[in-house]
Amino acid sequence: MQRQTAAGRDVPAVAVAAMRYRWPGAARDCLAIEQFAVGGGERVFLRGPSGSGKTTLLSLVGGVILPQAGTVSVAGQPLARLSAGVRDRFRADHVGFVFQLFNLLPYLSARDNILLACRFSAARRARLAVRGTSAEAEAQRLASRLELGDVLHRSAAELSVGQQQRVAAARALIGRPGLIVADEPTSALDADRQQAFIDLLLDECAEAGAALLFVSHDLRLARHFDRIVDLAQINQAAVSGEAAA
Amino acid sequence: MTPLLSLSLRSIANRRLSALLTVVAVALSVALLLGVERVRNDARDGFAQTVSGTDLIVGARGGAVQLLLYSVFHIGHASNNVSWQSMQRVAALPQVKWLVPLSLGDSHRGMRVVGTTDDFFRHYRHGEGRALAFAQGKAFAPAPDGLFEAVVGAEVAARFGYAVGQRIVLSHGSLGGEGGPRFADHADKPFTIVGVLARSGTPVDRAVLVGLEGIEAIHVDWHGGAPIPGLAIGPEHVRKFDLSPKSVTAALVGLDSRIAVFRVQRQINTMGEEPLTAILPGATLQELWSLVGVAERALLAVSALVVVVGLAGLVAVVVASLGERRRELAILRALGASPPQVFALLALESVLLSLAGIVLGLGLLYGAGALAAPGLAATWGLNLGLGGPSAGEWRLLGAVIAASLLASLVPAWRAYRYSLADGLTIRI
């Protein structure tokens, strides 16, 4: 299948180099990764059991925490060079997150949850404007693609888990950020719905030209990805930690 | 910042029951605080105007507060009376426009009896120069016609169910309250009520007013505080005696010009024949208020504490909600909200709740004030102003707003710390 080519395709969506991270007060490193990259528009399945440091890695990619050594770059921008406030805006502009569960603000409607991503990011709104559309129209378009057309006005708390995850996906995708990070987004879904959601996510990322970093412990879900990476293998801290244990 | 306000409002709307209860608690505390402040000011103003229009109060040599207490408030006793000749001399001073003598010492069922002249009704003023008004009847006539006529205050009439035409018996001495030690009654010379005064909110409400000659008449056959044994002079014969007063307890004095008040006061204080004291009622009322005002300030302090409790409740509700909202904070962080924005979001929420409480509290205050004002005026003679907040109330409001801003920092700071510590981790 020929992927649609995204702008800035040559620039990796994520690049981690010689990076070490240790939680404050921890006795040893949580992550030590020599080299890890997700290419522009690339769809990577990152396998890691719980406790393997994958959530930490996602926080580093989101720029919520900074490594003690090495660099984490998103869309070619080393995050450590940005101030905290600029990093927050950078995350809003360039990264969409889908979590395991409870992705939505319960007191907002599905539509407002999707639009929230644009309210925090002028860049997402601007990218939509360049394509001649508005945030509201784009939310409508994504919703109908994700079969959410008739629940947009409903409060998030009234949606089924599957609908909630699709709303979360729409919110991550709206305004075409270069990178979608999904953290076990299917674990709350029935087995037969899991693959359907992943296929949807893959299609939409391809459509939007976004790279997808999909994190899960469940290798059965890894079909259709460009590449599978095992966090345990690239994380030297875990290896040495297990050796020490 | 724009998404924050609507997010705050939606988040509050989502928890509307606890939000509403919190707002009501703050509103009640604010209404209480401002209500106490208002009643306090009105009570002080009312108190300071218990006697107005009277320039000087004259009595036997003694303390100013004591003279005020027994002459105006009917509390305690004069250590000495003033001879009628001395009062005549004061009345004859060139600047003195009028003099209303007061003769105290008798009582009726625990209420003080005030012997005076019908000038009392003409010159006694309270509040902003308001005269006494009659609810029923009229003033007692001058002696000899009105010798055994009495006018009762509103409280006396209300408590004992008195109306014009009823006959009452005065008692000697003033300690004998109802159920208290009973002094001898002047049962042989009853008085007829000819007037009932409208409520004034002053001690006059609790007084029985009779003519000076009436006081003399009931004591004709008395000596040294007891009836003279074997001597009983009935009301039909008493008019033959000289009933002009020998002495009175105090007098209210009005001057032609207030400018002369200190000079006349000095003249009276230094009259050679009999040691007298003249006081300025306004100044002495202020002095007295500074004594009783402690209670009023304590009340204000207590209601300020109630506001603190209200705000503490608000903080508790918002902080308690934070536990279950940590994942909400993580979602906002993932969407690009910075920790300062999370801080602002939570601060905004508390501030919105307190402001709603303050506004509702003001509404309650004015609503309750409008409802209660007629009743308060009728029963307590308390005139609640319903105008806009006074300078003192604005100060209190400002303090409440400042306190609520401070209080809002607590949940905001906690949310800030959570959002730093949790990052994108969704804690459940």
Automatic annotation (TrEMBL), chain A:
Record bears the keyword Cell wall biogenesis/degradation: no
Pfam families documented for this protein: ABC_tran
PANTHER family the record matches: ATP-BINDING COMPONENT OF ABC TRANSPORTER-RELATED, IMPORT ATP-BINDING PROTEIN
Protein name: Methionine ABC transporter ATP-binding protein
Keyword annotations: ATP-binding, Cell membrane, Membrane, Nucleotide-binding, Transport
A molecular-function term among this protein's GO annotations: ATP binding
Domain of life: Bacteria
PROSITE patterns with a match to the protein in the record: ABC_TRANSPORTER_2
GO CC term, one of those recorded: plasma membrane
Segments crossing the lipid bilayer: none
Domain ABC transporter, chain residue ranges per copy: 14-245
Native species: Thauera propionica
From TrEMBL, chain B:
Record key words, sorted: Cell membrane, Membrane, Transmembrane, Transmembrane helix
Domain MacB-like periplasmic core: 20-213
Residues of the signal peptide: none
Positions of the ABC3 transporter permease C-terminal domain: 301-419
A GO term from the CC aspect: plasma membrane
Domain of life: Bacteria
Membrane topology: Multi-pass membrane protein
Intracellular or extracellular location(s): Cell membrane
Main location per the UniProt record: membrane
Transmembrane segments: 298-322, 343-376, 396-416
Protein name (Swiss-Prot/TrEMBL): Peptide ABC transporter permease
Organism: Thauera propionica
